[in-house]
Amino acid sequence: MTTDELEQLLAEQPVTRLHRLAQGRVPRHFRLGKRRLIEALLQHSGDKRAGLESDLQVLIEESLKTPPPPHRKARPEPAPRLRQGAAAPTGQAEGEPAESPVDLTAFLEGIGVPEPKPFIPDAWQEDALTSLATTDVIVSVPTGSGKTYVAIEATRRAIEADRTVIYTSPLKALSNTKFTEFSRLFGSDRVGILTGDRQDNPQAALLIMTTEILRNLLYDAAGGEIDVRLDTLGLVIMDESQYIADPERGVVWEETIIFCPAQAKLLLLSASIGNPQDIADWLTSIRPTPCHLIRHHRRSVPLRAGYLHPTGKLAPLFRSVGIPHGGGTPLHPESKRLFAQYEDETLRPNR
Ligand SMILES: Nc1ncnc2c1ncn2[C@@H]1O[C@H](COP(=O)(O)OP(=O)(O)OP(=O)(O)O)[C@@H](O)[C@H]1O
Ligand SMILES: [Mg+2]
């Protein structure tokens, strides 16, 4: 079989079969998309291609011989009892808990716009703002907690004190969104943007830019080519600062922090830094003032996990409304049924 023929045959296989084929052959194969999985398989099987071909033949023959088990057959409609809730599922495996799983209505309950309430900053938000007056701050709190409020209020205070502010984000799209949002808040004459695509108002009190642009700006400053005034810089906000861990781009965050002017305070915001204390210790070791870390795990917006079948059918992923902690958590029977249906459909021969 030529490489083209083998590639063609692989491309015709359902993803689930490619994953089985990749077991042990391709590291972290479960993260790869179909096209990349095929490339990785071909690459990793370089000198043992015969083995790949014969394994693939075995899997194809296996699926031709073995019809899907009866309880995994696709059903045109979801089980009505699950829509109404509170009944035991079809095909419930032995050993599953006897209590009724949560129904879809309970799972979706509470989603919507909450009642308006007066805005009262949380204690951690106050703490961040007070600390920024004297030192760098890392805020590592769950998503939807209100990190933007800290960024906006810190900016307002810096501008009032005649200092300029740079806000960086890892994405041009996020920079554009923040430019619109902050222009509305502070007035368009006080806000500028610098990305690879856009340069507006570079002398503004608040400049939005991608982190790469700030790093380049700081490099230029070191070489004496300053486009933007850095001597009045009072605050640098790095949103989504977990990018410091990115294998390719992380170095840009590191260099930006290292070259950040000493008189400016750094505010790093993230929902997902795994080791914020290490980053805070590092900042403390290289910056003029000790870095203050603010960290908590309380979720203002609870997470729920669901399974969405390609046909649009939705089911809770677990038997409970929230996401259970710990291993061995039983899945919701409707989710299992939908997933089995998906497997049957994708494993069906000659798709
Ligand atoms: N103290 C507060 N009390 C009530 N609501 C708040 C408070 N602070 C912020 N919020 C609201 O919480 C919502 C989410 O805030 P924000 O977008 O700042 O979250 P975030 O922490 O930046 O999340 P992400 O990690 O997704 O970027 C916003 O609607 C904001 O108005
Ligand atoms: Mg945010």
Describe the protein's architecture and organization.
It is built from 13 helices and 10 strands. The protein is an alpha/beta fold and 351 residues long. It folds into 3 domains: 3-65; 80-101 and 303-347, no CATH class; 123-295, 3-Layer(aba) Sandwich (Rossmann fold). The strands form 2 sheets. An 8-stranded mixed beta sheet has the order 4-3-5-2-6-7-1-8, with helices on both faces. A two-stranded antiparallel ribbon has the order 9-10. β9 (306-308) and β10 form a beta hairpin. The model is unreliable at 69-94 (pLDDT under 50). The structure holds adenosine-5'-triphosphate and magnesium ion. Residues 119-122, 125, 143-149, 271 line the site of adenosine-5'-triphosphate.
Give every kind of bound small molecule, once each.
Answer: adenosine-5'-triphosphate, magnesium ion
Indicate the percent of residues in helices. Answer: 40-55%
Q: What is the general shape?
A: globular
What is the CATH-assigned architecture of the largest domain? 3-Layer(aba) Sandwich
Summarize the structure.
The protein contains 13 helices and ten strands. The protein is an alpha/beta fold.
